[in-house]
Amino acid sequence: MSGKEAGCAVFIDRQLAGPYGDFERLYMHGPFQDGIPQQGDQSPLTPRQRYRIGLAALNDHCRNELGAPFADLSEEQRDRVLSQLEADEIKLDDIDTPLFFEAILQNTMEGFFADPIYGGNRDMASWRMLGFPGARYDYRDYIERHNEDLGLEPVSIAGRSDWNTQG
Amino acid sequence: MVVGLGWAGAIIANGLVDAGLSVVGVERGPWRDTAKDFNIASVTDELRYSQRQELMLRTAQNTITMRNNPSQTALPMRKWGSFHPGNGTGGAGNHWAGITFRFQPEEFHLRSHLEERYGADSIPDELSLQDWGTDWNEMEPHYDAFEKIAGTSGRAANLISGRQAGGNPFEGVRANDYPTPPLKQPYSPTLFADTAREMGYKPFPVPSSLVSQTYTNPLGVTMGPCTFCGFCTNYGCANYSKASAITTVLPALIRKDNFEARTHCEVLRVTTDSDGRRATGIVYVDSAGRQWEQPAEIVVVAAFTFENVRLMLMSGIGEAYDPATRRGTTGRNYAYQTANSVQLFFDDKNFNPFIGAGAVGMGIDEFNNDNFDHSGLGFFGGGSTRVTPIGAAPIQARPTPPGTPRWGSQWKRATVDNYASTMSIGCEASNYSSPNNYLSLDPTYRDRLGRPLLRITFDFTDNDLKMAQYVTGKVVEIAKRMNPRQMIPSPRTGPWDGRPYQSSHVVGGFIMGVDPSTSSVNKYLQVWDVPNLFVVGASAFPQNPGYNPTGTVGALAFKAADAITKHYLRNPGEMIST
Amino acid sequence: MKTLIGFTLLSLAGTALTAQAASTEYQDIEHGRYLSVLGDCAACHTANEEQPLAGGVSLETPFGTLVAPNITPDAETGLGNWTFEDFKGTMTEGIGKGGYHLYPAMPYPAYTLMRDEDLRDLWAYLRTVSPVNHDVEANQLPFPFNIRLAMMGWNWLNFDDRDFQPDPDRPDDINRGAYLVEGLDHCGTCHTPRNFMGGDGDGKFTGAIVDDWLAPNITPDPHKGIGGWSEDELVEYLKTGGNRFDFASGPMADEVRHSSQYWTDDDLHAVARYLLTGAGIDETASSADAPEPLAQSNAQVQAGSKIYFDRCAGCHKTDGSGENGMFPQLAENPLINNDNASSLIRVVLAGSRAVDTDAKPTAPAMPAFGWDLSDDQIANVVTFVRNSWGNAAPTVSAGDVAEMRKALQGE
Predict the structure, then answer these.
(1) What subunits touch chain B, counting only 3 or more CB pairs under 8 A?
(2) B467, containing H or E segment
(3) Same domain, C182 and C272
(4) Model confidence over C384-410: pLDDT tens digits?
């Protein structure tokens, strides 16, 4: 299952619409200035602004260089663009390109692996893939069963289908 | 008047209330409640608690600025990375791991100890190690009191009544065993301990304030057993098994008539009389933005290290430390922790890494502190080596070997292959204070109330970087013998980086000692020259050994409460004359 | 325990003219104070902790709202102008000063059993509390229930004016227990089903609904009642607020907080012995009457077991054994076997906080699951719990849960 099939785009949309989208919790006072890498993200842009500016710039780049917006490129072309972004080989306009790529990668992974209540990780697909049992709270009966597959079904904060009366 | 209702503040407030004083506790965050805030059905949310840092202090409310040295301009930490300060009653004690070591007897007179063992001029100029002004015999009863409050699980090795196998042979002699027996162990710590034992080391269960069975503490407050849910560090505990002020002290304290808690109230400063020799109270702002002055006979500041030091700087208590002259005490000897690790990739193992807890695991102490001979090594200090699987929620816990792509089909295959078969050995090592590392007020950045942020100037010393290489090398020897497919050693390297999480064990800045020219508080946590002001917490540590600090923070809180109620109240004034 | 300071001064100031009949002896007043704790007067008469006994607690009855009056010695709004005889008439006949009839929300049908000397001591104590000027409109019932005269007829049908008669064949402690349980402690006010007029119905102590909580069966029935509890377990519950089966919550939390945690050990054991030896009930159910549990193959039980292991076992454990002092044991728990599952549904939906007492200050709480589980799912998990580990009780339907959800939203 791809990230998009798993609902990562829905996840990111919802995150950007919520308190994360404008960094509500974070210290966003200036002066904003570039520092050394170990001082971390010093951008004045909120995630919402980063996506708006970054996606527009990415499409501009793709149109100029490849003749179509990103979504209309072939899978190979898209992978190649992403690799170039990751390797800092493309400079997008008006946005710190590596920071933008890291935001997309991080948010996509969040969407893929977070609880499905946030819109991604559809049917707990990523948890099944890894064997992560999800929102469970009691392994007392399992902790001393070493080096064996415990066969635990994943469960979401919203539950799982076995919770409903069957038939 | 007690500022902060985390571990230290709650313990001291309770001690003073029981002595008959009327106590007001002021807390900048909300009142935390297990069932309401840590609902078992919603607390298992990695995005909310670990990624979005729900329980941590919002940097929008208060943060720090950081730089590695004075030649740089400090910039604000806009999102917590390196450490995770807490907020609300219980403080960071709600989302801590629960590891509850006692410092070793030598730590309390570290400078004297090293000079005695290795020579009077053996300590390099880049280290500003100091004695605490107290000793093991004075500390031990307070450690005991804290373990009994927290229900700490573990196994003693060195009891007054005699030695016993299975505990940490390097611990100081103790009056009592742990209040609850060791936790059950998952696979990875067991494998580590078996190997370490074969190599002649003495593995022991990591002392843990996640209780192993239902436990009622001396205040009558009951906790339930840990269930190894794996949502522990960074999360609040849903089943009352992780000790925190909210699960051990506050339920009893809040029922007492002479105690009052004021939450969502942020202290602006401690007020003093005209000659600065007496604290007169505090000024705080409530959630409606109204400013209040609360007079008090005794002021106890027991917030997190950062806020303790910032409040003292903003209140003009003591002389601000100046690294150029090495004069001044407020902000002096800020220290951290040197976190190292070795990651082990296996083919044929299933660690079920989602089973875990912040403080379940096995450790060895052969390479910690001064437990080994440092002659000729060119450094002092060491680390606590251990395997503590904290759980493996997958947004963060997705180990892949170096060189694996970070997305795409190859990434996915490697992630699946390694999720259950990878483990890590940590070495949480000492961080020895240096004249170059200190805390001060930032000249530029301000909090939402217009007050300067605290500025950290910090980098790892050569001493600590050498130590990191050495202890990580020792861990690698054990790791090799465990025969993994691949092994990735990560000794801490400089410069200090504020982005990746390393440890919330920030210490010093308002330290304990014998000499008012090099320390801020005496051994009773009483501020030199301001006898009715006490500043309690890890801010009092003159340096940081290779252990987690909370056990000692708790012990110091009991020590301060004991000193106030038994000595200060009878004869208010300097408990140690200068 | 904070009420004794400054009594003499207050009584002089507030009540000197009308209190001649009341004893001013310390031990009488202190005994009266203890009687007020036994009777839990504060539960209804103290709305504001700062103004003890000044009235104001609203009581929802099927007929409308009643508000408990001010019983401090304030002359204008309290009992300042009352005599002992006025007080006695209220307590034993339900007739207030001036001859009006009380509504039986005031448990005079139980208090009528009180001995004269106890009434005198209780009165002596009430004269000493701080007078508070607080006007309470006690009767907020709609027509026709607001006509107090109607209570004459109610009394004729539902009320026996009787004195307590100790049974010479029973030990003294059981007689003491009977005096307390039937009289001052007025257990039946909540635990005995009401009839259509609000009087005691059939099935003494077999449980009833109070404020959407089940006041459970406290007969010695081993399956649905407390027959499986030992005397010490019942005493522990009343004194500390909890035992291995249960923590007091809802209205019972108030009872423990204000009343039974302060009872003497002798009185606690007397009450426990009386209840566990049958409480004067002619015939109680035995274990032979226990129903069979639903089959584990039952679809609701199946689905409920999954929910239980995923969500509930983290505290109550996979075998339902709980943790004594923290998480109630669900296995073989009679409270769970009551026919009426209201309290169970309620605590799963909205959560519940245990009472905090001097002996057990923790007050652990069950979190709310109403936001997380659907009506169907709650019905499933409650049905599973009611039919596992020795429990057996009728199924709970999604409709039952929906009804409670609606009731709670109205609160």
Answers:
(1) A, C
(2) helix B462-481
(3) yes
(4) 999 999 999 999 999 999 999 999 987
Stated pTM of the model: 0.93
Chain A to chain C Cβ contacts (< 8 Å)? 46
| Chosen from C323, C329, C357, C366 to mutate, greatest number of chain B CBs within 10 A | C323
Domains and CATH numbers, chain B: 2-568 (3.50.50.60)
Structural domain includes residue A30 = no
Residue B344: what pLDDT? 98
Instruction: Select from C314, C325, C367 the Cβ nearest to the Cβ of B35.
Output: C367
Residues C122 and C25 in one domain: yes
Q: Quick one: C141 and C263 in the same domain?
A: no
Q: Residue B295, SS3?
A: strand
Judging contacts by C-beta atoms under 8 Å, the chain C residues touching residue B228 are none
Q: Minimal Cα–Cα distance from B40 to chain C, Å?
A: 7
Contact state of B35 with C353 under an 8 Å Cβ cutoff: yes
Q: Which of C311, C361, C372 sits opposite B220 (nearest CB)?
A: C361
Mean pLDDT (chain C) is 85
Closest CA to C194 of C184, C183, C205, C186: C205
- Structure-block tokens of residue A95: 């946005």
In a domain, A1, yes or no: no
Tell me the C-alpha to C-alpha distance, in Å, between residue B225 and each of B134, C315, C316, C324.
35, 9, 11, 11
Residue A3 lies in a domain: no
Q: Which of B34, B223, B239 sits opposite C314 (nearest CB)?
A: B239
Residues 106-145 of A with CB under 8 A from C: 135-138, 140-141
Q: pLDDT, tens digit, for every residue of B24-49?
A: 999 999 999 999 999 999 999 999 99
Shared-domain flag, residues C319 and C278: no
Q: What is the ipTM of this complex?
A: 0.96
DSSP string, C343-373: HHHHHHHH-EEPPP-SS-----EEPP-TTTS
C12 and C118 part of one domain? yes
Q: Is residue C166 part of a domain?
A: no
Assigned domain for C165 exists: no
Q: Which residues contact A73 (CB under 8 A, 6 or more apart)?
A: A62, A66, A81
Rounded to a whole number of angstroms, the distance from the CA of B238 to the nearest CA of chain C is 9
Count of the separate structural domains present in chain A? 1
Secondary structure of residue B113 in the 3-state scheme: helix
